[in-house]
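2.7 Reproducibility. Because tokenized structures are sensitive to small changes in the input, we list the exact sequence used for DUF4352 domain-containing protein, including any N-terminal residues retained from the expression construct. No trimming or masking was applied before prediction.
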Amino acid sequence: MRAYIRGAIVPAVLLSVALVTGCSSGSDDKAAPTKTVVDDTQERSTIKASPSASPSPSPSATESVLSGGQTGTYEVGETDEYGENYKATGKMSVTFVSAKYVTPAEIGTSSKPEHGQFVEVTLTFKNVGKSTARVETYGNLMWDDSSSAAQDATTLEGVGEGDDLDTDYKPGQGVTGKLILDVGRRGGFVYYMFSEDPEGGTPFVLKLPA
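Resulting structure tokens (single pass, no recycling of outputs):
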């Protein structure tokens, strides 16, 4: 059994689809039925790279969107060995403590932000359920805004400083830590995409200050 998380609202995942259309034969002018083939390899590679298939980056009204100082919760669950029959087994809370825009010099790096702006985000995760849960932020935090499509915001900057958020949490355990994210500009949304519930999910969204 593997533990997964289930978000409050589900931004859809983009699928790579190849269409193969057969040609008609004989005197029949009707085209042969269209066959749709899904490239599983490409699907897996894009599942974390797109928090929403909608052209609008704004989360839906019912999605768990946190501004600085706010706390939200999301379900923790598990599936069977085939990745099916999901069931909720516990709950995690996350507090968006703060967000601070920083320069490379302020975080002690010579690397420039690939997308345009570093932001130091402080989060507190706590297991408020009855089963062990895992947090995986690296590679699972996407940023977008009204003019930029979703991009992976995670970096290795600041790794090793303070407590590590990416770990297993037993019931009652919590950690407060910092992440250095690379975003396009000030403002926008950061989506936590770690969810393998068959129905998909975005456990929470951070609204960055402008």
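Residues 1-56 have pLDDT under 50 and may be disordered.
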